[in-house]
Amino acid sequence: DQQVKQNSPSLSVQEGRISILNCDYTNSMFDYFLWYKKYPAEGPTFLISISSIKDKNEDGRFTVFLNKSAKHLSLHIVPSQPGDSAVYFCAASEAGTASKLTFGTGTRLQVTL
Amino acid sequence: KAGVTQTPRYLIKTRGQQVTLSCSPISGHRSVSWYQQTPGQGLQFLFEYFSETQRNKGNFPGRFSGRQFSNSRSEMNVSTLELGDSALYLCASTLNPTGSGNTIYFGEGSWLTVV
Question: Any idea what DSSP says for residue A97?
Fold first, then answer.
């Protein structure tokens, strides 16, 4: 049972444009959501997170939006840069179990010149 | 401030052998968790240790085990290795796993190949 889904395996965006990565979840007990960036054979790097009590969180070029009623979150990267090319994972955890993350399957973002 | 440190980074083992992987969390972090990444199953939670006690466990066979020491450093062990155990094993740490809104920071991983 895939509780966190990233339905787009890949996304290609031109440099300078907006990248929008999507994530859906089914477990209503999730209360904290995170986005990670990952290169092959390396550990995930934390990008940005959002608590279920918020609907938006911004950090520089990265903004995460949460729609609890739709059980949907998205990561916006503006403007996209070639260095953003990587695999992006969304992850979620339940209250009191911050270390037990459930990950999506990842979206490979390619930022082209 | 040093990040999560994992050793070794790469290793090759033979089927039937056992392996021990080591992890040092970020200074001050008392919770350590382990994840497995494979092409077929993605990133999956193995187990979590806090104050030397296992708090949570994922859906993995008993061949996968771990422990945490008093200095918060952790080890995971896989016994009777199978080809399917070939994966990137990731260690992560966080300050307080019992609250909400705590970010999990990952190490670079240990890449295990079973031949």
Answer: -
A93 contacts on B by Cβ (under 8 Å): 100, 104
DSSP for chain B, written as a single string? ----EEE-SEEEE-TT--EEEEEEPPTT--EEEEEEEETTTEEEEEEEEETTEEEEE-S--TTEEEEE-TTS-EEEEE-S--GGG-EEEEEEEES-TTSSSPPPEE---EEEEE-
Q: How many CB atoms lie within 10 A of CB A87?
A: 18
> How many interface pairs between A and B have CB atoms less than 8 angstroms apart?
84
Of the pLDDT bands very low, low, confident and very high (cuts 50, 70, 90), residue B99 is: low
CB–CB contact B42 A106 (8 Å): yes
Distance CA B40, CA A5 (A): 15
Kindly report the nearest CA distance between residue A104 and chain B, in angstroms: 8
Question: Percentage of chain B surpassing pLDDT 90?
Answer: 83
Instruction: Give the type of residue at A61.
Output: R
What type of residue is A38?
K
Per-residue pLDDT reduced to its tens digit, A49-70? 999 999 999 999 999 999 999 9
pLDDT value at position B39? 84
**Nearest 5 degrees, angle CA B97-CA A63-CA A1?**
55
Cα separation, A32 vs A16, whole angstroms? 29
User: Would you give the end-to-end CA distance of chain A in angstroms?
Assistant: 38
Indicate the pLDDT class of residue B1, thresholds 50, 70 and 90: low
